């Protein structure tokens, strides 16, 4: 069957797929066969599919079907098979790889010298992205598929991501961004001794209202304006000419560095971070009431109304009980108040917890599972892979920030005048 005939058949109907799966499961039940491992159902199906594909490759290479008289005198012919075990996402599969007499056959599906297929590599990278150590990955593969994988093989698979990581960290960026969020998460890295170090994360909202992680930077505790100038200059050198709002968590030296890099940018303390910082000082039994009272501050229509709401909170029961919360808001007031000037459509987008929290939660889980990392590069690889699984250019719906982004974009255009050119 040629390519045109295959296309004419069209996609396989769901009912047919269900029927095939049902037959396979009945066969497994009748024979008592396992799903995975040597002789397992999925292993045998994988073997059959791969061998049939390899036979098709050989037919294409020779130009005639097996046993076809047209092959007589062609100068080349089939020459039996050789056995080869490859690692697939269904485990180890031993294949009969066809050979030709003059040795010119170069299989594409299972290349010469290849001992694992792409699906297996992706599975290893997926496990690595979840923060699993090399030992954990070996144990998982042995338990699930009965495959013993060497630490060197896992290291080679994960090290192959390094070039991809470098290309991602140096890729060109759009010239104008409505919002960039900057945050830090703390990761334990061994450098002589194990120490907690910050990894800075920049997440942008593009003109379509979709999130994109712009970069990762490993820092040292106590770094300030110099570090931020390096990070922001890198973003500018990669093409970011202007940002309307840079939202952050009061990171030392960042506001001054933002102003120096993008003079027109508004530095905005993240409201979610302010609330989270406030809740750290309070007993959990008061969290619900605190959130309600603090909401009166950040939803106030004007700065004057917000000041009054903060004064009311300060004089109230919770303000008297938790003076540290009052100090937290007072210290962040100058970076918080720009938020009060924004129209509701912009406020909703700047405030949204889904944007950066969904990413941070995944990254924290990956680093928490791992405990600590042997090097800075190892930490960045895990974080990059976790980001790659969560945020992809194809997943536009998943990456979308606001349900009514076009309304917000129109308000951005009005509020920030001619700095945006919406599509």
Automatic annotation (TrEMBL):
Residues 63-84 are annotated as: Disordered. Required for the transposition of the insertion element. This is Mutator family transposase. Belongs to the transposase mutator family. Residues 75-84 have a biased composition (Polar residues). The keyword Ion transport does not apply. Keywords: DNA recombination, DNA-binding, Transposable element, Transposition. One of its GO terms (molecular function) is transposase activity. It holds the Pfam family Transposase_mut. The keyword Hydrolase does not apply. One of its GO terms (biological process) is DNA transposition.
């Amino acid at each position: 069957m040629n390519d045109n005939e295959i296309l004419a058949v069209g996609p396989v109907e769901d009912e047919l797929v269900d029927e095939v799966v049902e037959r396979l499961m009945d066969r497994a039940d009748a024979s008592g066969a396992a799903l995975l491992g040597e002789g397992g159902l999925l292993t045998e199906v994988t073997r059959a599919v791969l061998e049939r594909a390899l036979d098709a490759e050989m037919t294409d290479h020779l130009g005639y079907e097996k046993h076809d008289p047209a092959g007589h005198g062609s100068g080349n012919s089939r020459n039996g098979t050789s056995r080869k075990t490859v690692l697939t996402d269904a485990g180890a599969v031993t294949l009969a790889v066809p050979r030709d007499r003059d040795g010119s056959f170069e299989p594409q599906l299972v290349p010469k010298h290849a001992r694992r297929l792409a699906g297996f590599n992706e599975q290893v990278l997926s496990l690595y992205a979840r923060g699993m150590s090399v030992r954990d990955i070996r144990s998982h593969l042995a338990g699930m598929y009965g495959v013993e994988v060497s630490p060197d093989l896992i290291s080679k698979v994960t090290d192959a991501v390094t070039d991809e990581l470098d290309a991602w960290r140096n890729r060109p960026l759009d010239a104008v961004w409505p919002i960039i969020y900057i945050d830090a998460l703390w990761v334990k890295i061994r450098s002589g001794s194990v120490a907690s170090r910050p990894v800075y994360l920049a997440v942008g909202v593009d003109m379509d209202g979709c999130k994109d992680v712009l970069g990762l930077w490993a820092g040292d505790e106590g770094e300030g304006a110099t570090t931020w100038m390096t990070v922001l200059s890198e973003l500018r050198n990669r093409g970011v000419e202007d940002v309307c709002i840079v939202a952050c968590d009061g990171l030392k030296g960042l506001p001054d560095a933002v102003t120096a890099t993008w003079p027109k940018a508004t530095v905005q303390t993240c409201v979610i971070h302010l609330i989270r910082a406030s809740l750290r000082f309070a007993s959990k039994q008061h969290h619900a009431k605190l959130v309600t009272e603090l909401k009166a501050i950040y939803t106030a229509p004007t700065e004057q109304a917000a000041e009054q709401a903060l004064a009311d909170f300060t004089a109230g029961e919770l303000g008297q009980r938790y003076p540290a919360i009052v100090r937290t808001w007072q210290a962040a007031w100058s970076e918080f108040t720009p938020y009060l000037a924004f129209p509701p459509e912009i406020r909703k987008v700047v405030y949204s917890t889904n944007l950066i929290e969904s990413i941070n939660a995944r990254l924290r889980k990956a680093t928490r599972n791992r405990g600590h990392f042997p090097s800075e590069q190892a930490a960045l690889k895990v974080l990059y892979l976790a980001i790659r699984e969560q945020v992809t250019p194809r997943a536009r719906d998943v990456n979308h920030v606001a349900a009514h982004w076009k309304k917000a974009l129109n308000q951005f255009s009005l509020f920030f005048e001619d700095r945006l050119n919406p599509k």
